[in-house]
Write the C-alpha coordinates for this entry.
Amino acid sequence: MSSGTLVTLAPTGAESAKEDVPALPVTVEEVVATARDCQALGAAVLHLHVRGTDTRPTLDLPRVREVVTAVRETTDLVVQLSTGGAVTDPADARLAVLDAAPDAASLSLGTVNFGRDVFYNPWDLIVELHTRMQQRGIVPEYEVFDLGQLATLTRLLDRHGLPHGGHVHVDLVMGVPGGMPGSTAALAACLPALPPGATFAATGVGRTSLPVMLAALSAGGHLRVGMEDTLTYAPDEPVRDNAQLVARAAGLARIAQRPPLTPPQARQLLGIPAGAVGTAAQPARS
Ligand code: KMH
Ligand code: ZN
Protein backbone atom coordinates (compact mmCIF):
# COMPACT_ATOMS: atom_id res chain seq x y z
CA MET A 1 0.00 0.00 0.00
CA SER A 2 1.33 3.45 -0.87
CA SER A 3 2.36 5.50 2.14
CA GLY A 4 0.79 8.61 0.64
CA THR A 5 -2.33 9.49 -1.29
CA LEU A 6 -2.36 10.89 -4.79
CA VAL A 7 -5.08 13.53 -4.93
CA THR A 8 -6.20 14.38 -8.44
CA LEU A 9 -8.29 17.48 -9.03
CA ALA A 10 -10.90 17.40 -11.80
CA PRO A 11 -12.11 21.00 -11.54
CA THR A 12 -14.32 21.58 -14.57
CA GLY A 13 -15.32 18.63 -16.75
CA ALA A 14 -17.40 18.97 -19.87
CA GLU A 15 -20.88 18.40 -18.53
CA SER A 16 -21.86 21.40 -16.40
CA ALA A 17 -22.69 24.84 -17.78
CA LYS A 18 -21.19 27.97 -16.26
CA GLU A 19 -24.68 29.53 -16.22
CA ASP A 20 -25.90 26.73 -13.98
CA VAL A 21 -22.78 26.46 -11.82
CA PRO A 22 -21.16 29.90 -11.43
CA ALA A 23 -18.32 28.52 -9.26
CA LEU A 24 -17.13 26.26 -12.10
CA PRO A 25 -13.66 27.42 -13.24
CA VAL A 26 -13.78 28.03 -17.00
CA THR A 27 -11.58 31.04 -17.80
CA VAL A 28 -7.79 30.71 -17.91
CA GLU A 29 -7.58 32.87 -14.79
CA GLU A 30 -10.17 30.81 -12.93
CA VAL A 31 -8.51 27.51 -13.84
CA VAL A 32 -5.06 28.77 -12.82
CA ALA A 33 -6.32 30.19 -9.51
CA THR A 34 -8.15 26.93 -8.78
CA ALA A 35 -5.09 24.85 -9.64
CA ARG A 36 -2.85 27.00 -7.44
CA ASP A 37 -5.24 26.94 -4.47
CA CYS A 38 -5.85 23.22 -4.75
CA GLN A 39 -2.14 22.39 -5.02
CA ALA A 40 -1.65 24.27 -1.75
CA LEU A 41 -4.34 22.06 -0.20
CA GLY A 42 -2.88 18.74 -1.39
CA ALA A 43 -3.74 18.17 -5.06
CA ALA A 44 -0.87 16.82 -7.15
CA VAL A 45 -2.51 16.09 -10.51
CA LEU A 46 -4.83 18.28 -12.57
CA HIS A 47 -7.32 16.41 -14.79
CA LEU A 48 -8.13 19.13 -17.25
CA HIS A 49 -11.06 19.76 -19.59
CA VAL A 50 -10.63 23.09 -21.33
CA ARG A 51 -13.40 25.63 -21.94
CA GLY A 52 -13.45 28.24 -24.68
CA THR A 53 -13.95 31.95 -24.21
CA ASP A 54 -17.68 31.21 -24.61
CA THR A 55 -17.38 28.96 -21.48
CA ARG A 56 -18.32 25.86 -23.53
CA PRO A 57 -16.12 22.74 -23.64
CA THR A 58 -13.55 22.89 -26.43
CA LEU A 59 -10.71 20.78 -27.81
CA ASP A 60 -9.38 23.71 -29.84
CA LEU A 61 -5.63 23.13 -29.73
CA PRO A 62 -4.40 26.73 -29.32
CA ARG A 63 -6.82 27.19 -26.44
CA VAL A 64 -5.77 23.87 -24.85
CA ARG A 65 -2.10 24.88 -25.16
CA GLU A 66 -2.84 28.29 -23.65
CA VAL A 67 -4.41 26.75 -20.55
CA VAL A 68 -1.68 24.10 -20.18
CA THR A 69 1.02 26.77 -20.38
CA ALA A 70 -0.74 29.01 -17.87
CA VAL A 71 -1.13 26.16 -15.36
CA ARG A 72 2.52 25.19 -15.75
CA GLU A 73 3.67 28.76 -15.19
CA THR A 74 1.85 28.92 -11.87
CA THR A 75 1.89 25.39 -10.41
CA ASP A 76 3.92 22.18 -10.26
CA LEU A 77 0.87 20.03 -10.82
CA VAL A 78 1.05 17.06 -13.14
CA VAL A 79 -1.03 18.24 -16.11
CA GLN A 80 -3.32 15.44 -17.25
CA LEU A 81 -5.42 16.44 -20.25
CA SER A 82 -8.74 14.74 -20.82
CA THR A 83 -8.93 12.81 -24.08
CA GLY A 84 -12.51 11.95 -23.20
CA GLY A 85 -13.70 15.47 -23.91
CA ALA A 86 -17.45 15.76 -24.15
CA VAL A 87 -19.73 12.96 -25.38
CA THR A 88 -20.20 14.91 -28.60
CA ASP A 89 -16.49 15.19 -29.45
CA PRO A 90 -15.19 13.23 -32.45
CA ALA A 91 -12.31 10.77 -32.08
CA ASP A 92 -9.84 12.77 -34.19
CA ALA A 93 -10.25 15.87 -32.04
CA ARG A 94 -9.85 13.78 -28.89
CA LEU A 95 -6.62 12.29 -30.26
CA ALA A 96 -5.31 15.72 -31.28
CA VAL A 97 -5.35 16.85 -27.64
CA LEU A 98 -2.10 14.90 -27.26
CA ASP A 99 -0.45 17.48 -29.53
CA ALA A 100 -0.57 19.88 -26.58
CA ALA A 101 2.14 17.71 -24.98
CA PRO A 102 0.70 17.20 -21.49
CA ASP A 103 2.54 15.18 -18.84
CA ALA A 104 -0.35 12.75 -18.76
CA ALA A 105 -3.73 12.13 -20.37
CA SER A 106 -6.85 10.19 -19.57
CA LEU A 107 -7.64 7.09 -21.62
CA SER A 108 -11.12 5.64 -21.27
CA LEU A 109 -11.30 1.88 -21.67
CA GLY A 110 -14.74 1.29 -23.07
CA THR A 111 -17.99 2.64 -24.38
CA VAL A 112 -20.51 3.36 -21.65
CA ASN A 113 -23.95 4.86 -21.37
CA PHE A 114 -23.52 8.30 -19.85
CA GLY A 115 -26.89 9.34 -18.54
CA ARG A 116 -28.99 9.72 -21.69
CA ASP A 117 -25.86 9.96 -23.84
CA VAL A 118 -23.24 7.45 -24.97
CA PHE A 119 -19.54 7.96 -24.21
CA TYR A 120 -17.96 6.31 -27.22
CA ASN A 121 -14.66 4.45 -26.74
CA PRO A 122 -14.23 1.67 -29.30
CA TRP A 123 -11.20 -0.64 -29.22
CA ASP A 124 -9.42 1.03 -32.15
CA LEU A 125 -9.57 4.44 -30.44
CA ILE A 126 -8.26 2.91 -27.21
CA VAL A 127 -5.30 1.37 -29.06
CA GLU A 128 -4.58 4.58 -30.98
CA LEU A 129 -4.55 6.66 -27.78
CA HIS A 130 -2.36 4.10 -26.00
CA THR A 131 0.23 3.84 -28.78
CA ARG A 132 0.37 7.59 -29.46
CA MET A 133 0.97 8.21 -25.77
CA GLN A 134 3.75 5.60 -25.75
CA GLN A 135 5.39 7.30 -28.73
CA ARG A 136 5.16 10.80 -27.25
CA GLY A 137 6.15 10.05 -23.67
CA ILE A 138 2.74 10.88 -22.23
CA VAL A 139 1.60 8.85 -19.24
CA PRO A 140 -1.96 7.54 -19.45
CA GLU A 141 -4.46 7.36 -16.65
CA TYR A 142 -6.79 4.51 -17.59
CA GLU A 143 -10.39 5.51 -16.89
CA VAL A 144 -12.59 2.56 -15.98
CA PHE A 145 -16.37 2.97 -15.83
CA ASP A 146 -17.26 -0.68 -15.44
CA LEU A 147 -15.64 -3.93 -14.32
CA GLY A 148 -15.33 -5.41 -17.81
CA GLN A 149 -13.15 -2.50 -18.88
CA LEU A 150 -10.40 -3.86 -16.65
CA ALA A 151 -10.35 -6.96 -18.87
CA THR A 152 -9.89 -4.57 -21.79
CA LEU A 153 -6.92 -3.04 -19.98
CA THR A 154 -5.27 -6.44 -19.57
CA ARG A 155 -5.84 -7.18 -23.25
CA LEU A 156 -4.44 -3.77 -24.21
CA LEU A 157 -1.26 -4.23 -22.19
CA ASP A 158 -0.80 -7.82 -23.39
CA ARG A 159 -1.06 -6.80 -27.04
CA HIS A 160 0.50 -3.34 -27.04
CA GLY A 161 2.84 -3.19 -24.07
CA LEU A 162 3.19 -1.08 -20.98
CA PRO A 163 2.55 2.68 -21.03
CA HIS A 164 5.34 5.22 -21.11
CA GLY A 165 7.13 5.12 -17.75
CA GLY A 166 6.19 1.48 -17.26
CA HIS A 167 3.69 2.07 -14.48
CA VAL A 168 -0.04 1.38 -14.81
CA HIS A 169 -2.39 3.76 -13.01
CA VAL A 170 -6.16 3.31 -13.16
CA ASP A 171 -8.97 5.63 -12.16
CA LEU A 172 -12.22 3.88 -11.26
CA VAL A 173 -14.96 6.31 -12.26
CA MET A 174 -17.94 5.13 -10.27
CA GLY A 175 -21.56 6.16 -10.07
CA VAL A 176 -21.98 7.36 -13.66
CA PRO A 177 -25.58 6.56 -14.69
CA GLY A 178 -24.80 3.71 -17.07
CA GLY A 179 -21.59 2.52 -15.42
CA MET A 180 -20.75 0.65 -12.25
CA PRO A 181 -22.33 1.90 -9.03
CA GLY A 182 -20.37 4.01 -6.58
CA SER A 183 -20.32 1.43 -3.82
CA THR A 184 -17.76 -0.33 -1.66
CA ALA A 185 -18.85 -3.67 -3.15
CA ALA A 186 -18.25 -2.49 -6.71
CA LEU A 187 -14.86 -1.03 -5.80
CA ALA A 188 -13.85 -4.26 -4.06
CA ALA A 189 -14.92 -6.25 -7.13
CA CYS A 190 -12.52 -4.24 -9.30
CA LEU A 191 -9.43 -4.81 -7.19
CA PRO A 192 -8.61 -8.41 -8.22
CA ALA A 193 -8.94 -7.38 -11.88
CA LEU A 194 -6.25 -4.70 -11.70
CA PRO A 195 -3.03 -5.59 -13.54
CA PRO A 196 -0.19 -6.70 -11.24
CA GLY A 197 1.64 -3.72 -9.79
CA ALA A 198 -0.99 -1.20 -10.88
CA THR A 199 -2.11 1.61 -8.62
CA PHE A 200 -5.66 2.89 -8.62
CA ALA A 201 -7.63 5.96 -7.73
CA ALA A 202 -11.38 6.16 -7.43
CA THR A 203 -13.89 8.84 -8.22
CA GLY A 204 -17.46 8.74 -7.02
CA VAL A 205 -19.78 10.81 -9.16
CA GLY A 206 -22.45 12.91 -7.43
CA ARG A 207 -23.61 11.63 -4.07
CA THR A 208 -21.27 8.63 -4.29
CA SER A 209 -18.23 10.87 -3.82
CA LEU A 210 -17.85 10.33 -0.10
CA PRO A 211 -18.51 6.56 0.11
CA VAL A 212 -16.18 5.93 -2.82
CA MET A 213 -13.48 8.09 -1.26
CA LEU A 214 -13.70 6.19 2.03
CA ALA A 215 -13.72 2.82 0.26
CA ALA A 216 -10.71 3.79 -1.87
CA LEU A 217 -8.70 4.92 1.13
CA SER A 218 -9.53 1.75 3.04
CA ALA A 219 -8.30 -0.31 0.09
CA GLY A 220 -5.02 1.58 -0.32
CA GLY A 221 -6.24 3.55 -3.32
CA HIS A 222 -5.84 7.15 -4.39
CA LEU A 223 -8.47 9.85 -4.86
CA ARG A 224 -9.90 12.05 -7.59
CA VAL A 225 -12.23 14.85 -6.60
CA GLY A 226 -13.58 18.01 -8.15
CA MET A 227 -16.55 19.78 -9.65
CA GLU A 228 -16.32 17.67 -12.81
CA ASP A 229 -17.73 14.85 -10.70
CA THR A 230 -19.48 16.38 -7.71
CA LEU A 231 -21.59 19.52 -7.34
CA THR A 232 -23.16 18.73 -3.96
CA TYR A 233 -21.02 18.81 -0.83
CA ALA A 234 -23.75 17.43 1.44
CA PRO A 235 -27.49 16.93 1.07
CA ASP A 236 -28.99 20.25 -0.05
CA GLU A 237 -25.57 21.92 0.14
CA PRO A 238 -23.98 22.88 -3.17
CA VAL A 239 -20.20 22.67 -3.47
CA ARG A 240 -18.69 26.11 -2.76
CA ASP A 241 -15.62 25.55 -4.91
CA ASN A 242 -13.05 22.93 -5.87
CA ALA A 243 -10.86 23.82 -2.91
CA GLN A 244 -13.60 22.63 -0.57
CA LEU A 245 -13.54 19.18 -2.20
CA VAL A 246 -9.74 18.93 -2.22
CA ALA A 247 -9.58 20.01 1.44
CA ARG A 248 -12.02 17.25 2.38
CA ALA A 249 -10.11 14.61 0.40
CA ALA A 250 -6.76 15.72 1.84
CA GLY A 251 -8.21 15.66 5.36
CA LEU A 252 -9.53 12.13 4.93
CA ALA A 253 -6.19 11.03 3.49
CA ARG A 254 -4.44 12.39 6.59
CA ILE A 255 -6.92 10.62 8.85
CA ALA A 256 -6.08 7.42 6.97
CA GLN A 257 -2.42 8.18 7.77
CA ARG A 258 -1.65 8.39 4.07
CA PRO A 259 -1.19 12.15 3.58
CA PRO A 260 -1.40 13.80 0.16
CA LEU A 261 1.57 13.27 -2.14
CA THR A 262 3.39 16.33 -3.41
CA PRO A 263 3.61 16.85 -7.20
CA PRO A 264 7.21 15.50 -7.30
CA GLN A 265 6.09 12.42 -5.35
CA ALA A 266 3.18 12.03 -7.75
CA ARG A 267 5.55 12.15 -10.72
CA GLN A 268 7.63 9.43 -9.13
CA LEU A 269 4.58 7.25 -8.51
CA LEU A 270 3.24 7.69 -12.03
CA GLY A 271 6.57 7.26 -13.83
CA ILE A 272 6.80 10.85 -15.05
CA PRO A 273 10.39 12.12 -14.98
CA ALA A 274 10.95 15.19 -12.80
CA GLY A 275 10.48 18.36 -14.78
CA ALA A 276 9.08 16.46 -17.77
CA VAL A 277 6.66 18.46 -19.82
CA GLY A 278 5.39 15.74 -22.08
CA THR A 279 7.39 16.84 -25.08
CA ALA A 280 9.36 13.64 -25.42
CA ALA A 281 9.36 12.10 -28.84
CA GLN A 282 10.50 8.94 -27.10
CA PRO A 283 10.31 5.44 -28.50
CA ALA A 284 7.51 3.12 -27.44
CA ARG A 285 8.51 0.80 -24.66
CA SER A 286 7.35 -2.29 -26.49
N1 KMH B 1 -16.74 14.00 -20.16
C1 KMH B 1 -16.94 12.59 -20.22
C2 KMH B 1 -17.83 12.26 -21.38
C3 KMH B 1 -12.20 11.78 -19.49
O1 KMH B 1 -12.03 12.94 -19.14
O2 KMH B 1 -11.33 11.10 -20.02
C4 KMH B 1 -15.68 11.84 -20.33
C5 KMH B 1 -14.65 12.10 -19.33
C6 KMH B 1 -13.54 11.13 -19.30
O3 KMH B 1 -14.67 13.05 -18.59
ZN1 ZN C 1 -12.81 14.05 -17.42
In short: The chain is about 35% helix and 15% strand.
